[in-house]
Fold this sequence. Notes:
The chain is built from 2 helices and 28 strands.
Amino acid sequence: MKHFLTNLLLCLCISCIFIYNNCLAQTYKVDKSGSGDYTTIQEAIFDVPEGGTVKVAPGIYEEALVIEKSFNLIGSGPNFTYIKPQSQDENAITLKKENIAVKIIGLSLTSDQDGIYIDNYNNIQCIISNCIINECINGINKETTADYLNLSISNNTIISCNIGINIDNRNYYNDGVQYRYGPMSIKGNIIAFNENGIKFYNQHTYTIKYNNLYKNTVNYEGCSTTEGDISVSPKFINQELNNFVLASDSLCINAGTFGKTYMDPDGTRNDIGAFGGPDAAAFWPYYPNGPIVNELSVIPTAIPKGGKLSIKAVGRIRD
C-alpha cells in the first residue's frame, strides 16, 4: 500500500508538471480579421496562462493594453503590428501588477500619453525589444517608487516623444527606507528627435551603450553613456511615411551591441534600432543578397484607367 501511494503521488506530481509546462508553453494568436484565437489583444492577455505567449498578427489595434501577469507579447514586427489607443488619456501599454516578468517584442506603439508605462508595483521585470515608439509623451516611463525594477530596453526606435526613456526614482529613500532598483540596461536603441533622450532621476545602477542619441534637445539627463553610443542621423528610408527601416548608408548599420548573442539575422553585427538583433528574424526587412531601396519615385502620381506609369527605384546591395 505504501509503494502504491508513493507511485500514485509520483504520477500525480509528473502529471502536474506536465500540465504546468503545457500552460507555460501555450500560445494565443490575435488577428483582428478573425482568423486567430482572438480579435483583440486585451482579450487574449486576459485569458493567456502565466508564462504563455500572445502573438499578434499584422494590423492596427486601437487598444490600451493593461498587463497584470507574466507572459510574452510578440507582434509581427514594428512595421506590421500597430497599437494606438482610441482615447487620448490612455497609455498604449501599462504594466500594473507586482511580481511579474514580461517581454514586449516587435510592436509599433503610438499614444497621446505614454508608449509603455510601468506603474507603482514591486518586483517588475520587463524586456522591451524591437519596438518602434513614436509620438508619445514618454516613450517608456517609470516615475513612481516601487521596490526592485529590472528593465532591459534593446533594439528599439524611440522618436518624436517628449521624453524617450524616463526613469524617475525620486523617492529612492522614503521615511528612511532605501528602495532597491535592479539593473537598468539600454542597448542598441535609436532615440532621436525627442525633447529629452534618456532622463534618469536617482537611478544608480545602469548600462547605456551602443545607442544612437540624435537631435534630442537634451540627449542625457541624470545619466551618461557607458560605452559605444553615437550621435548621427539614423537615415531612415522615409521618416515622413513612418518607414523607419535603415537606409543602406545609415551609420546605424553594424554599429550596435556585438557578440554571438547579438547578431543580426544575416549573421553580421547588430544594427542599432528596431530592425536589429536576433529577435528581428521574423520581420527582417533586408533580403539576403538583395537590394535595399532608399529612393522610390512614381511618375506620374495619378493616371486614368488604362494609363501607364514609370516606377524608378534607387538602392544598393546590402553588405
